[in-house]
Request: fold
Amino acid sequence: MSDSKQKAVVYVRLKEGVLDPQGLTIQKALSQMGYKEIVSVRTGRFFELEINSNGANIDDRINEVCSKLLANPVIENFRVEKV
Amino acid sequence: MKVGVVTFPGSNGDYDSYAAVKHVLGEEVEFLWHKSSDLLGSDLVILPGGFAYGDYLRAGAIARFSPIMESVKRFAKSGGLVIGFCNGFQVLTESGLLPGALVRNSGLRFRSEPVYLKVENTDTPFTNFYDADEVVKFPIAHSEGNYYNFDSDIKELESNGGIVFRYCDKAGNVTKDSNPNGSINNIAGITNRERNIIGMMPHPERAVEKILGSDDGLKLFESVRAFLNSNVSKEAVEKV
Reply:
């Protein structure tokens, strides 16, 4: 079992209050298409990580990866889901 | 003075900076390859415009981990002069060498046009040739130039002279209409507390001869040269 693999999904989104021009544009387009009930759209992105899980501290390592590279802590939050 | 211009894969402003220093200013200049960690004894390091590493993930996010950036950080921490133009500014914020972040332009469009800027702080190695509140014209060319930071950091920048350039109209009025990207408080360029690092979205290196539409950018390079020539303490800077 030394090379068992694990998956994690990382969701990165802009913090509350940070302007999301893409989300705004999508919301406007939806409104023009007749979906008036959708009053706000916020975009984000997600990453699927495949991890060799024989190492220790996987959770710490994933958190490190998120705060160092996948998300910019000035403007973004992240959430990790282990699959 | 000796200037080093970093070339990342995807840089496209490296030759502009090189030409401005070599052919217009008449000073020594070398390219610094991103995989090298040798700054070749540069007195000033320029991180140029472009799309380093394709701007994948976020502009500047991958470039900050290149070998040359480790040396640039060491150089900057010891007081060495570092300029980031455009994409270079994005690399500086991602690296933590300057505060804040550059996000998508509020209008979502890539903006490529000349803009007017007000020189807000002339007491820096990069702006000592400018007059206080002087209005200059530099081109911009970016889609992620919208400066964002926490309120507390904006206050800190505002009260400590951290803001060097601000978007304005031709007469020097800082207005909403003259802000091309939605930057907080029309911020176009900032410096750190030690004043040895500057990051700015506009391109003074593309405004160094009248034929380019403006030569207002030349004074930025002349400021650095004058600063280096007069700075007796530059021996303290760690040559990398």
